[in-house]
Amino acid sequence: MAVINETGSFRRLSLSDEETLTVKDHGPIAGNNKLPVHTVKKAAKELNETEENKQREIAELRSLIDERAKLVSDEEKKEADRVVTTFRAKPDDVMVKFLRARKYDAERAYDLMRGYVGYRLKYPEVVSSITQKEVRHSMEIGQPGVLPSRDAKGRVVMFFRFETWDPLLRPFTEIMQSFVYILEKLLESSETQINGVCIIEDFSGYTFGQVAAVSIAEYKQMIDMLQGSFPCRFKGIHCIRQPWYFAKAFSFIKPYLRAKLFERVHVYGEELEVFFNEFSRDFLPSDFGGTAPPYDGVAAANALFGPNESDSDEDTSL
Length: 318
Description:
Helices cover 46% and strands 10% of the residues. It is built from 14 helices and seven strands. The longest helix is centred in the first third of the chain and has 21 residues, at 51-71. The protein is globular and about 50 Å long. The N and C termini lie far apart (39 Å).
């Protein structure tokens, strides 16, 4: 029997029933709520998450944090020391966040921690101070936005709409600041850590001026964010309604994409039937060709941050 509440309709499902999941079978996009039973089973099946593995790999990861700082070369010492200062005193749930992203392999989770602190050392301008009020405004106009509920697979869907972006008013690095802030907030949720995040890039209104406004170095900010720098399971990047000259911009990015991420980039153009197989029309807002109401950025921001009066200068990074 389904149990219906504000967070959705949680049914008891076997793994063979995964394809029958709906949006209502998952929790909200924010907060660390109780995991649905089918999500617990998914974590065990896909991520090797058992209580025994969890305790063993947490202990191993904590050992690696201290041990590796003593063994690294002078060139790597700054990064390794930053891992120690960032993570040594963190609670177990932070360890679990990185372990989930690497299927409970402590060695790989440690490398991800290095990537996390390395990103901050390499791109201080991206992780510099930005207020929740500024990020809320970004979400309201879809630069980037977050759909207010999970999709049928339990994934959070972020998106970016080019037709609303004026690079003269808002440089690309400011867009990246919002991406990073929002992502950190989303990853506070265990359900997001397990089910992952998808990104939809809507290229309606994409201009030559926007192509020229993003430098190779700024493309690198984005690519490095997506691979090896965040404890996030990026499940796909979906590009829709792109014009022919999108290929020029993509040619700048392609050399930096690792094989795994490259395989998860999906380009549809105006032919969206396959896209609608990935994201059902009844889930998608009408802005993306779906049958749900248009994207409500205020509601999405409220879902992630709470009501407007709670806006603060909260730092979401670890």
